[in-house]
Structure formats: structure tokens, C-alpha cells
Design a protein that fits this description.
Length: 71
């Protein structure tokens, strides 16, 4: 993991087309802004993990249905 120190108003750039800017720092929270192309999905990690879990569940159900159709 790369750890960087940034101050309010400072940014970092990922992959030449994603910019992450520190907007506000308050006590134990940091507000960030993300500028990315529309085709780049941006999720909070807990949302991303839930999507992955639901996709895995859907895939297993789809595989079960495909197996039933073979029989």
C-alpha cells in the first residue's frame, strides 16, 4: 500500500485520468472529491463488497439453474 500525506485542497492523480482531492478535514473524517471518467465506477468499499457478494450469489443460482436444465 502506498501511503501519502495531503493537505486540504491538495490532490493526487491515478492512471492519468482520475483525480482525488482532499476537500475537508474535520476531527476523524476526511472529505474527498473524485473526478473520474463516467465509465470508471467509484464505490465506497462496503458497497463494492456487497455488490461482489450479490454477484457471487447470483452466479451460483444461475449455475444451479443451468445444471437443472441439463438434467
Amino acid at each position: 500500500m502506498l501511503a501519502l500525506t495531503r493537505k486540504k485542497g491538495e490532490s493526487l492523480v491515478l492512471n492519468n485520468n482520475i483525480e482525488v482531492t482532499i476537500l475537508e478535514i474535520r476531527k476523524d473524517q476526511v472529505k474527498i472529491g473524485i473526478s473520474a471518467p463516467k465509465d470508471v465506477p467509484v464505490y465506497r468499499k462496503e458497497v463494492y463488497l456487497q455488490i461482489q457478494k450479490e454477484n457471487e450469489a447470483a452466479a451460483s443460482v444461475a449455475n444451479l439453474e443451468a445444471l437443472k436444465n441439463l438434467l
